[in-house]
Write a structure and sequence with these properties.
By secondary structure, this protein is mainly alpha-helical. It folds into two domains: 108 residues, NADH-ubiquinone/plastoquinone oxidoreductase chain 6, subunit NuoJ (Four Helix Bundle (Hemerythrin (Met), subunit A)); 43 residues. Helices cover 78% and strands 0% of the residues. It contains seven helices and no strands. It is flat, with a radius of gyration of 21 Å.
Length: 167
């Protein structure tokens, strides 16, 4: 076993443990934070496989924007613990574990029964440098306009979540 194999297995284990934290933790804020770790683990796997642009987008879009938005919405709007207020939550836990175990068994069976052909990979091209040059050069106005639009959307969400103040 080579060092690169160990790196891949470590990234995969980190991602799986974080994903288990998403579904197993009873506190929704902790689950959302584990979701951020899951996104970072997936980005690490993308970087390991040489897909640097997809890994960067994974960090920017999912681990950054989407996760912050989810945590922000949960902290603003959730006033009670969901697991205590929903009695059907505990009933379906065992059924979900059964189906998850069956799915994992079928997935492992299909992975081990498939013959994987090894081929030489394509030449790695630096695509991030070109995209960064375009975003900060030719398309800087569109990039900044999108950032201002997202900022306005976040401010509007905060105003709507607060409601009207009594005068």
């Amino acid at each position: 076993m080579q060092l690169s194999d160990l790196v891949f297995y470590a990234l995969a284990a980190f991602t799986i443990i974080a994903a288990l934290g998403v579904v197993a933790l009873p506190n929704i804020v902790h689950s959302a934070l584990c979701l951020v770790l899951t996104f970072i683990g997936v980005a690490g796997i993308y970087f390991y496989l040489g897909a640097d642009f997809i890994g960067l987008i994974q960090i920017l879009a999912y681990a950054g924007a989407i996760s912050v938005l989810m945590i922000f919405a949960v902290m603003l709007l959730l006033s009670r613990d969901v697991s205590e207020s929903n009695p059907s939550h505990k009933k379906g836990k065992y059924l979900a574990a059964l189906f998850s175990g069956l799915f994992a068994f079928l997935l492992a069976l299909s992975i081990y029964s498939t013959s994987w052909d090894l081929t030489e990979g394509a030449e790695i091209v630096d695509s991030i440098g070109k995209i960064a040059y375009m975003l900060m050069g030719d398309y800087v106005i569109a990039f900044e306009a999108a950032a201002i639009l997202l900022l306005a959307a976040v401010i509007g969400a905060v105003i709507l979540a607060r409601g009207e103040e009594k005068r």
